[in-house]
Amino acid sequence: MLSLLRVHHIAIICSDYAVSKRFYTEVLGLEVQQEIYRTERDSYKLDLALNGQYLIELFSFPETPARLSRPEATGLRHLAFAVADLDATTRELAGHQVAYEPIRVDESTNRRFTFIQDPDGLPIEFYEV
């Protein structure tokens, strides 16, 4: 068996770097650790953290193809964040004009959750713990 320690990071490729950077930093509140522009690739790489923990690498590349991204599509299903108060989270999202799905209840845990989409349609879940 492999000796995995934890998830190191999640890599996301966006279609509009400025829009996605604003979404992940201003709407979700992730902290910028490092931003690099790679001239030879015409590409940005933005390292983002949550509560000081390195979490997401946000990339931009020219002419990226679209990807199917609904939660039930094959591949990565969604990115989920734990929140203490889902009602406060949805109020904050609404304040940023971010639409969220109706709140649902996990049948196995009785915990509430909802989904939004990032600027490229990547499903993001907020799960009340």
What does this structure look like?
By secondary structure, this protein is of the alpha/beta class. The protein has two domains: 1-65, 2,3-Dihydroxybiphenyl 1,2-Dioxygenase, domain 1; 67-129, 2,3-Dihydroxybiphenyl 1,2-Dioxygenase, domain 1. Helix content is 16%, strand content 37%. The chain has two helices and eight strands, in the order βαββββαβββ. A four-stranded mixed β-sheet has the order 1-4-3-2, covered by helices on one side. A hairpin with a 6-residue loop joins strand 6 (104-105) and strand 7 (112-117). The mean pLDDT is 91.
List key phrases describing it.
2,3-Dihydroxybiphenyl 1,2-Dioxygenase, domain 1; 2 helices; 2 domains
Task: Compose a concise summary of this entry.
This is VOC family protein. This protein has 129 residues and is of the alpha/beta class. The protein has helices at 17-27, 86-95, and strands spanning 10-14, 31-38, 43-50, 53-60, 79-83, 104-105, 112-117, 123-128.
List the helices and strands and how they pair.
Elements: E1 10-14, H1 17-27, E2 31-38, E3 43-50, E4 53-60, E5 79-83, H2 86-95, E6 104-105, E7 112-117, E8 123-128
Parallel strand pairs: 1-4, 5-8
Antiparallel strand pairs: 2-3, 3-4, 6-7, 7-8
Organism: Hymenobacter wooponensis
GO molecular function: metal ion binding
Protein name: VOC family protein
